[in-house]
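Most newcomers find our protein records easier to grasp once they have seen one. A record pairs a protein's sequence with a compact description of its fold. An example says more than a description, so a record of this kind follows:
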Amino acid sequence: MAIADGLSDSMSLHIISEEIEIEEGKAKHTPQEIWLTMFFTFLSISGFTLSFLIPILIFPLKTAIIFAIFWGIFLLFILNFWIVKIKKEKPTKLIFEHILLALFVILISYWVGNKIPEIF
């Protein structure tokens, strides 16, 4: 999943950068910029996704799930903090909004995961 997701996202960015982003009749980015973006997108997405495998290999499943949730929230906090630093905005609103959204996704995923066996 980590590799497939990383490849699909990086390929999407490659296509968008190459095909869509045109200014004044010329490509907005050089071929080197496009390939570097694709490469680093693949590495970052695959790396983040694979980092969730570590607790599953180390801990019992229930402990690994809890650890993975906290790991994900921690990563989300760090990435959002980095984004607001770049944008020079107050971190509270964006970080709170994204962590709340992540918790919502976790709860919905858990609920759907429990309903699937009931349905089938």
